[in-house]
Amino acid sequence: MSQEQIQYIDNYLQFIGVKFIDVRIELIDHLATEFETESEYVLLGDFLRTKRNFARKFEKQWDRSKHWGYQKSLLKRIMSYFSSVKNVFILLMIGFSIFLSIVSLEETVVKLLFFISLITPQIIYMYLGRKPKGMHKKILSAKYMGSIMALPSMFLYLLGLTIPLLKENTIWFFFYWFAAMVFNIAGIQEVLKCKNQILKNYSDLIKN
User: Fold this and answer.
1) DSSP states of 132-162
2) In the chain, domain spans
3) Helices 21-37 and 3-15, interaxial angle, to 10°?
4) Which segments of the chain does DSSP mark as H helices, in order?
5) Mean pLDDT of the chain
6) Which of residues 63 and 70 earns the better pLDDT score?
7) What pTM does this model have?
């Protein structure tokens, strides 16, 4: 299919109200393939007019599937950390750094480092989620990027319950801090992956 035809499909989808880039990516791929392999229509415009209701239904279904899809991606990334020697070594270094902080620094400093390590990923996410400007208005997936950070953010919300563990049970505090770091690092990586892939796919599709 030519670039002009792909652009024509994209323009038509925008015309019927499919405003989100990532939804149009999926629809363009589906509609282009169907038109080339299965369609009996000669003119692309005639074919697209028969797909108006399908496009709208597709957008609603695609919308509902995003939340849990992101959660699964986050958990898969965390599991991947334990699948290579390099990743395991990095985890050990993170764990050692946390342990060293707990046993060698003053309690006030440890609390401050703990808080900073939890709040920083959330700040990074807020920045990434709003760049480039207007992304939430153009990319449906961006509306659900927050679901990627839902589990990691729980460690921050439970901060008040975990700080007392620093005195009462150092081992549990260590594992809580370590798990928080793993979940937050994985969350930021998934947000970056999602955002970059959406923008790249759309750009490549329109260019080719």
Assistant:
1) STTHHHH-HHHHTHHHHTHHHHHHHHTHHHH
2) 3-207
3) 120
4) 3-15, 21-37, 44-49, 52-80, 85-104, 107-128, 135-138, 140-143, 145-148, 150-157, 159-162, 165-168, 170-207
5) 83
6) 70
7) 0.70
